[in-house]
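Entry for adenosine monophosphate complex. Fields follow.
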Amino acid sequence: MAKLTVSDLDLEGKKVLMRVDFNVPIKDGVIGNDNRIVAALPTIKYVIEHGGKAILLSHLGRIKKEEDKPALSMRPVAERLSNLLNKPVTFVPTTEGKQLEDAIDGLSNGDVLVMENTRYEDVKNGENVKRESGNDPELGKYWASLGDVFVNDAFGTAHRSHASNVGIASNMAQTAAGFLMEKEITFIGGAVDNPEHPFVAILGGAKVSDKIGVIDNLLAKADKILIGGGMTYTFYAAKGMKIGNSLVEKDKIDLAKEILDKAGDKLVLPSDSVVAEKFDNDAAHKTVDGDIPDGYMALDIGPKSVAEFEDVLKSAKTVVWNGPMGVFEMSNYAEGTLEIGKFLGTLTEAKTIVGGGDSTAAVQQLGVADKLSHISTGGGASLEYLEGKTLPGIAAISDK
Ligand code: AMP
């Protein structure tokens, strides 16, 4: 069923609690990259332009002890948000109590308030009580009492049941998705539940064990699954091929055999690889077909595989990509990943969805990100979504 979104709400004069993802890299109080704050702007602007009082909650980093708190204060984030919105933003340096309640009472329509890091609640009086991360029922209830409606725009935490997403939602009459969340549900949820065919998944990265849930779920839904990256060679081993010194998960070879049997020709392995003598960008390297020779490790898919993958992709209507095709951090083994990213940028007739840190970095580096339909904002959340799991943060959003 379709989910309620922020544009379905009457916001005028309402205290709008908003769970956003302001979990930005921060060092010595300096924000390294404000992409996540920028990404939250459309929903925040929509709320204030429609007369809502925006009360923003987010986590920032992990807090395990009192001493972790000062470096993970939300204050610099509130300041950056104020610059980006070009208007004052009230920062409240606490997560509960009179100071917070008074500040909320003092808001006028269209004002913006940023509360202190929700994970300050994980440590109280020096004790690691995990009130936020453990979804303490009292905390969710308390935060919910501070607003009239709740908007959840933090997809990155949707796979977790925390007080600031699930806890608030379960104490609120109405919870709506923000625009970022809505886009994740439309594209990733859409691909998993109701893809337009042909549906092709490209799965890479180091380990079979990390992607097994996704492979399993997508085998039932996709028309083809293209495999790349380090996990290829566990599949090679399962087929009795030679893998040289390539990455392999020995305890997953039987599982890989089962997948291969089940998948038939749905699963496509690379037919050639770039192999090197050492795990080093400057090591002697060459391209080989099939078996990986002794003394070599496979670090990228080869040009023949790229062409074969492109041949499958060119007629796709839905494409999901997660994980690099090789050791993309080293320029000599980045070609496979970059070529696939570039090709996705040419697929104007398909819904193209990218998730995961490395594949996202690849399409950004190539400058093709804006040619794709959707770049997911959540790593762990997007993987669990692709695994077909119910994400508690999304389940807690009201149906339309
Ligand atoms: P993941 O986090 O599972 O998406 O895996 C990403 C990591 O897999 C990157 O750091 C890549 O360098 C690594 N990787 C990709 N292909 C290979 C390969 N053939 N051998 C070793 N590591 C690889």
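NOTE: The chain has 14 helices and 19 strands.
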